Amino acid sequence: MSNQSFIISLPDGTKKEYFRPIKAMDVALEISEGLARNVLAAKVNGKTVDVSMFINFDAALELLTWKDSEGKATLWHSSAHLMAEALESLYPGIKLGIGPAIDNGFYYDVDFGEIIFDGEQLFLIEEKMLELARQKSEFLREPISKQEAVKYFEAKDDEYKLELIENLKDGAITFYTQGNFTDLCKGPHIPHTGFIKAVKILNIAGAYWRGDEKRKQLTRLYGISFPKQKELKEYLALLEEAKKRDHRKIGQELGFFTFSQKVGKGLPLWLPKGAALRERLESFLKKAQLKAGYDPVITPHIGGKELYVTSGHYEKYGKDSFQSIHTPSEDEEFLLKPMNCPHHCEIYKSQPRSYKDLPVRFAEFGTVYRYEQSGELHGLTRVRGFTQDDAHIFCRSDQLEEEFSKVIDLTLYVLKALGFPEFTAQISLRDLSTPEKYIGTDENWYIAENAIKKVAKDKRLDTVLETGEAAFYGPKLDFMVKDAIGRKWQLGTIQVDYTLPERFKLEYIGADNQKYRPVMIHRAPFGSLERFIAILIENTAGNLPIWLAPEQFVVLPISEKYHNYAKNVFIELQKYDFNGFIDRRDEKIGKKIRDAEIKKIPFMLILGEKEAVGNTLSVRAHGTGDLGSFSFNKFLEMFKTKIEI
RNA sequence: GCCGGCGUAGCUCAGGGGUAGAGCGUUUCCUUGGUAAGGAAAAGGUCAUGGGUUCAAUUCCCAUCGUUGGCUCCA
């Protein structure tokens, strides 16, 4: 062995010199025993590996614990193996597909063969897993030849693993073994099963082998695991909370929207209260957009087929979309509009444009229709008819960055005003390996992708790059917000597009009297009103900010005797455009309060003898309780403050 | 689109081969009350739709539609 020393550098800048190979685990031990107890995996020069791996070269080392997303992923991946081990011991003869870690937990695809697996006894699997976990079996890595690997799974008659091995290179195959279970796996894994302290099998679902519906359907068991029992409890509580906040449930309870089989699936019907909420959002954004120099436009819900042939949508989606609308005239074909941009391009073309006119910004709450696969429909988040808060900015190339930057400012303003302070910006780029998915020249893609990257950097947005997520006509920047219970949602989108101006032959006259092609920016801060409202409901659990609440106050007369006073108060409030109603029902005040609380009405004004005589209001706030007695003006003042965005 | 679960009153749900039940809501009456449910009565259902089995189907079987959990997809 050489005496050559090597340096391991840690994230905090510490550098350690070693003279013989050392395991990441031993480095952890040198730092502290506590760290060593918690380290799940290691990252060596950016690659996640087992902590038992020997390092004998200069390396940047990161010790991964439960706090790191890769640490979590490693524990979950190992948990998938543990679940497989438990399943094998409970149901001998099963065959295994793949078992990866996912965003929240892990799954394993299992072919139960002749065994009837009804999913009733998931707790038995959980118990078995915990029992095996307590044995603290080490995860042992073992490189294996392709031949040996095939032999092993042939003996098990597991055609799925054999298929996986087939696609692997000899020499790059490893097995991992813990306890009595051996699996084909490239790792890494946690040191031993004992790190897994809490396990829950969340659900089971069918999943085709390799996602191909022509192939066999396997049973997919989803699970999640934690290094502490407490964390599992918290996670399950979060799931409960998410269920309570489900916009489909709250939307129904608060009378926001409904669906009708006759109207059609995926086509929401907005009830008066939902419509009120929507209008408030619209007018909020309209105001902001007017300030930002947008011009509202209005276009019809259908467009001639040629419009979409020109735009490229017809070629791309024609077959998989709502079919065309015919008229009594032969050869007349229209399509429901799937996007507003082609219409807006035609508006741009309606007159010659000078470089001095640019940028022009056309904004429209445009309702579009897309034939989504039936299995994809979900509440308001995935529908077949929805309204985009759409706008298209046509500008000169030299204005692109500034315009893009302004759009980001507007989007940030909107997100902040609506209670989404936490977000990341996802930049979606095209995947160079699948050029058939995109239209447009390489040069324009290059320019557009770089413009987005530059502006995001200038704005110092917290950015992630996603290859292959671009729209077919251009790259985009999406805002991913985090909601009140930590879930991530994709909201507003901004897209740069050189392609549509090309296809529509859009032009402007430059200072030199030559014709030039403008650049287009598509943008929608909400995305769609439907989806946004769904997210807003889940984020607020239905407790909307008062400026958005369809019913902002309710007047609760103690008894019939005070209906008159209630009416006077109500009329006064109406003068200020506040929205509410009088609960004139022949019920006791407790009942009226309870019902108003359930309806999540921000302010309850309780009026009885005292108030009528003193000309005051007794104010109660939703979720807070009695605020005491107010003069009308004092209440007005408070109301006005609360209503400010 | 594919696989599985579900579909009973406006809502939440119970029931089950002999044509239906609760709570909430609604309506009416009594009650006129002080910060999360006052009392009584009534109305309300082709048990998703269409076939089949059966003396008899809301119940069992099949199909369709809708919904839901996944898979695949997303301008």
Summarize the structure.
The protein is an alpha+beta fold. Helix 8 (247-253) packs across helix 16 (529-540) and helix 13 packs across helix 14 (442-458). It is globular, with a radius of gyration of 30 Å.
What's the story with the biggest beta sheet?
8 strands, mixed
**Mean pLDDT across residues:** 91
CATH names the topology of the largest domain as BirA Bifunctional Protein, domain 2
CATH homologous superfamily heading of the largest domain:
Bira Bifunctional Protein, Domain 2
Strand content: 25-35%
Structural class: alpha+beta
How many extended strands? 35
Determine Rg (CA atoms, Å). Answer: 30 Å
Structural summary, described in words:
This protein has 645 residues and is an alpha+beta fold. The protein folds into four domains: 60 residues, Roll (Ubiquitin-like (UB roll)), CATH 3.10.20.30; 172 residues, Threonyl-trna Synthetase, Chain A, domain 2 (Threonyl-tRNA Synthetase, Chain A, domain 2, 2-Layer Sandwich); 247 residues, 2-Layer Sandwich (BirA Bifunctional Protein, domain 2), CATH 3.30.930.10; 91 residues, Anticodon-binding domain (Rossmann fold, 3-Layer(aba) Sandwich), CATH 3.40.50.800. The strands form nine sheets. The chain has an eight-stranded mixed beta sheet with strand order 18-22-23-30-27-26-24-25, sandwiched between helices. It has a five-stranded mixed beta sheet with strand order 2-1-7-4-5. It is globular, with a radius of gyration of 30 Å.
